[in-house]
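Consortium newsletter contribution from the modelling node. Members have asked for a concrete example of what our holo predictions look like. Here is one, prepared for the manganese (II) ion complex that several groups have been discussing at recent meetings.
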Amino acid sequence: MATRIFTHGDGDGLCAGALALAANPGAEVFFTHPFGLLGDLGNAEEGDFVVICDISLPEHELSAVLDRFSELAEGGRLVYIDHHPLPEGLSIGDIPGEAIHDTRSSASELAYGLFREGLGGPLGRVAIYGAIADYLDGTPMMAKLLCDWDKRAIYFETGVLVQGIEGRKRDYDFKRSVVRHLAANDPPSAHPELLRSALENAAREEGAIRSIGKRVRVEGEVAYVIDFPFSLGKAAIYARASAGAAVGIAGERRKGSIDMSLRTCRGDIDLNRILRRIAPGLGGSGGGHPSAAGARIPEGRFREFIEGLNAALAGPP
Ligand SMILES: [Mn+2]
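And here is the predicted structure:
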C-alpha cells in the first residue's frame, strides 16, 4: 500500500505535507489546488493511503471529486485535511473517508493533530510555521506548541519559508525538496536555495511596497491593482494599505479572466461569503477565508464586480 500525499503549494500546504511525510516516510508528494484536484487524484491508485491537505473542495465538480474520494476510501484509506469553508450545503459527514476539517485552524495544525504520534521527533515547529504562514497561529494548540520554542526564531524561520517560496508557484521539484527538508525537521534557513530565494523576494517586496501607491485605483471602499508584477496576495495587502481602503484587490489578466486575491483587515467583512454570493452571477467563482480570499471573474465584467463588491460592503452584513 503506497502512501500518496496531495497538498497545496503554499506555506501551510508545504508544512502540512511535510508532517504527513514525516509520519509516512517514503510517501510520494504531489502539489495540487482546487481546480486540479480531480485530475491530480488520477495519480492515486486503489489500495493507496491517500492524504489530501489544504485543498478546498471545488464547487464546480464537487460530486465527481466526492465520487473519487469514495473510490479511494473503499479500496484503501483516504484522509482529507482542510480548513477552508466547505461548499454550501455540504457537511463534514458527506465527505467519504476520514475528514478532518476546522476553519479555525491551519491545515498544518490539523495534520499535526492527526500524525503527532507517528512523528518521532519534535516537529511541532513545522506545524507552527504552517499556521503562521496562514495567519492562524492564535489557536490554543499553537500557543501550547510555541511554549517549546522561541517565538522570534520561529518567526524568522517562517519568514524564510514564506518569502522563499514566493514566485515559485509551479516549481514542484524545488517545493518537494522543501517538504523533505521540513519533514526531516531541518529549519528553512538551512535550505540554501530557499534562503537565497527568500532574500531575493524580500528585496523585490521592498520595491513593490515603494511603487504600488502609483498604480492603485480606488472605487468606493475598494482599492485595486491589475497586472502589478508581484504576489497577488501581498499586492492586495499593500494596495489596501496604501489607499486606506476597506478591501484590497490585486488581479492579473489571464485567458480572458481576471484572477485575483482580496484582503481585508475589517473583522465585520466576510470576503468568502460575499464572493460566493456575487461571483457566480458574473460568470466567475470565488471564495476562501473571511479576510483573505480569491476570485476569478471574466475580464469584461470586472467593473460590475467592483460595483457588486461595494454594494455588498455597504449593504446588510
Ligand atoms: Mn491553508
